[in-house]
Amino acid sequence: MAVAPPHLFLPNMPPPPTTTAAATSSPPPPPLTQDELKRMAAHRAVEYVKSGMVLGLGTGSTAVHAIRRIGDLLREGKLTGVVGIPTSKMTEEQATEAGIPLSDLESHPSVDLAIDGADEVDPQLNLVKGRGGSLLREKMIEGACKTFVVIVDESKLVDHIGGTGLALPVEVIPFCCNFTVERLRELFPDSGCRAELRRVGEKQVPFVTDNGNYIVNLYFERDFGDLNEASDRILRIPGVVEHGMFLGMATTLIVAGKLGVTVKEKSELAG
C-alpha cells in the first residue's frame, strides 16, 4: 500500500495546525516607568563609588535611589569608610535613614564624588538644577567635588538650556524680593522671559529654601543665548544669591532610556 509523502496530505484529511510568530512569541514587556528609569541610572552611578570616598549626596527623586543603593552596599559590607555630605535637609534625612555617615564641607573640603539628578541637560553637559529648591547647597558641594556624576532619564535631555519651557530657578534674599523679581524679568527682553516668585500651599506663601531664602522661577519662550553671559548678568543683580545653571561642572552623564543605560563623559566632548 502506497503511503503519501510527508509533504502531501490525503483528501479529506485536515492539515496539521500551523504556528505563527504572533502565536508563539511572548507579548512585549511593559515600558519602564520614569521612576524605574531613574533607579537604573542611579544604580549605574553608584558603581563609581569606592570605599573610603567622601560623597556629595544630591537632592530629589533620582538622587534618592543612589542614596538607598549606597546604604544597601554599606549594610552588605561591600562599601566601607564612606562619608556623605548632603545637599539638603531632605537628603540628610534620607541618608541618615539609609545608614550613611554624614559630614560637611568644613570637615571635608575636598569631595571625591558627587551624584545628583538634573532638571535639564544640554549636549555640552550644562545643567539646570534646583527646581526642588536646593540649588545653592548643591552648587557648593558639587563645585567642590573631583567627579560629578549626573543621573537622568532621557526626558531631561534638551537642545539648549531652558528648552523645556520649565523653570530656571534663582535663589534670592527675601528683602525687597519683588524688586529683584522685576530686575530679573528685565534681563532677557528678547527671550520672552517671565519671572515669578515661587509660592506654595493654599495660602500661596513664598517657598523658603533651607537657607531661609526665596526662589524666583524664570521661564523662557526662546533661547536666551550665551549661558556664561546670562549667568554673569543674573549674579550681578543685588539680592540674587545663586542660580540653577550648572555650567561646565558635570564630568559624567548617565542616561536611562528605552534602549537601556548610556554613559557620556565630558572628556569625550569635542572642543
TrEMBL record:
EC number(s) on file: 5.3.1.6
Family named by the database record: Belongs to the ribose 5-phosphate isomerase family.
GO biological process: pentose-phosphate shunt, non-oxidative branch
Organism of provenance: Acorus calamus
Recorded GO MF terms: ribose-5-phosphate isomerase activity
This protein's pathway: Carbohydrate degradation; pentose phosphate pathway; D-ribose 5-phosphate from D-ribulose 5-phosphate (non-oxidative stage): step 1/1
Lineage per the UniProt record: Eukaryota, Viridiplantae, Streptophyta, Embryophyta, Tracheophyta
A Pfam family that the UniProt record links to this protein: Rib_5-P_isom_A
Domain of life, source organism: Eukaryota
Catalysed conversion reaction: aldehydo-D-ribose 5-phosphate = D-ribulose 5-phosphate
Name the record gives this protein: ribose-5-phosphate isomerase
Region feature (Disordered): 1-33
Family annotation (NCBIfam families): PRK00702.1 (NF001924), rpiA (TIGR00021)
Keywords: Isomerase
Gene3D superfamilies to which the protein is assigned, alphabetical: 3.30.70.260, 3.40.50.1360
